[in-house]
Amino acid sequence: MIPDKVLKAYFNLSEIVNISPFGNGHIQLTYRVETKSKSFILQKINTTVFTNPELLIKNHLLIQQHHKLSKDNEYLIPEIIKTLDGNNYFFDTNKGFWRLTNFIENSYSLEKTATSTQAKEAGKAYGWFLTSLVNVKTSLFEEPIPDFHNLSFRLKQFDDAVDANIAERRDLVSSEIEFFIERKNFFLDIENEVKSGKIPLRTVHNDTKINNVLFEENKAKAVIDLDTVGPGNVLFDYGDALRTIANNSAEDEENIENITLNWDYFCSFTEGYLRKTKGILSLSEKENLHKAPLLMTYIIGIRFLSDYLNGDIYYKTSKPRHNLIRSRVQQFLLKDMEQKNNAMKTYILNNL
User: Fold this and answer.
1) Can you give the C-alpha Rg of the chain in angstroms?
2) Are strands 39-44 and 29-35 parallel, antiparallel or unpaired?
3) According to the model, what pLDDT value does residue 280 have?
4) What is the mean pLDDT of residues 69-96?
5) Coil, strand, or helix at residue 106?
6) Are 93 and 264 in contact (CB under 8 A)?
7) Stretch 193-198: mean pLDDT
């Protein structure tokens, strides 16, 4: 539970009526704190993953202050609440690094997309998020997790895992290794477009899953989990959203027939996203957007396979070959995306 010292930094303890674990996140410890007047979200930051937690606060406050000044209230974001001493976070060597935000009332989150309306609403919310920060200098933000979506960095990790063969599993996955190697140059060409500046650097969310959008009834209400916000490009957000939101299967699906891109969800998310962003996207972004879901699926696929080769040291697993199964899901999803990519490109261009 939460140490009293942490609670006392934010609350008069007599005002607290209930504390309970909240959400399904795997990184931060998250609690809902209910007082006599309102509710809050209190989180202990995982400083193993986020080694510079002050950076999370800095980036969050940049977004929060910009939205207040711009009076852009179409969607909400969580707002950082100060300690009773006026600090933006609480830190104690023994108790850890803690952050308090407001609880967004009358809202709920989804773990999996269930309707095209949900996909479209998520697209609008994430499109709004990108557009809302277009006038904020990206140079003001720093990467909370360096090289988070950096393809060359992830390929180096993959190559190292294959060469080292620490868990002696390489011979078991030779076809999977070959699958990803065969496609490497195609995705490096996309990265070169980014490195050359043709695809511009932007401030992006970097974790655009459906559960980072809050809904009220059938409408998106808020964009949450700003911990990964930082410099990146539009391909990261658009691509990773569709990798997850429009995937018909679970992340660890074992029946390969279920692993396909949901075309209706793809179209709905794209329509919503482009409705908000087409006015700011560059020509190169528009020309490459159809490759984004493939790029992000490829990156996650090699990350899962690298972890399997390394002996499952990064991602939590709950069954044998779990990371291999996860990597295969990305592999078969990527195959389906490849078959549909011309249609994806046409649909995108028709909505610009």
Assistant:
1) 21
2) antiparallel
3) 97
4) 95
5) coil
6) no
7) 94
Report residue 247: phi and psi, to 5°: -90, 120
Q: How far is CA 224 from CA 19, 107, 170, 199, in A?
A: 21, 12, 39, 26
Q: Is 80 exceeded by the pLDDT of residue 26?
A: no
Q: What separation in angstroms does the CA of 248 have from each of 109, 254, 255? A: 18, 13, 11
pLDDT recorded at residue 77: 98
The answer to whether the CB of 42 falls within 8 A of the CB of 10 is yes
Which domains are assigned to the chain? 4-102 (3.30.200.20), 116-350 (3.90.1200.10)
**DSSP string of 77-93, one letter each residue:** ---EE--TTS-SSEEET
The count of C-alpha atoms lying within 13 angstroms of the C-alpha of 180, restricted to the half-sphere facing its C-beta, is 28
pLDDT > 80? residue 25? no
Predicted confidence band of residue 71 (pLDDT cuts 50, 70, 90): confident
Partnered with residue 40 across adjacent β-strands are: 33, 102
Structure token digits, residue 82: 């100060």
Give the separation between CA 324 and CA 301, rounded to whole angstroms: 9
Q: What is the DSSP letter of 225?
A: -
3-state percent helix, strand, coil for the chain, nearest multiple of 5:
50, 15, 35
Side-chain half-sphere CA neighbours of 107 within 13 A: 22
Q: Are 206 and 148 in contact (CB under 8 A)?
A: yes
Euclidean distance between CA atoms 8 and 21, whole angstroms: 18
What single letter denotes the amino acid at residue 198?
Answer: K
pLDDT the model gives residue 125: 98
Cβ atoms of 53 and 47 closer than 8 Å: yes
Residue 259 CA, chain-centre distance (Å), reads: 21
Residues 286, 137, 98, 209, Cα dihedral to 10°: -10
d(CA 33, CA 18): 6
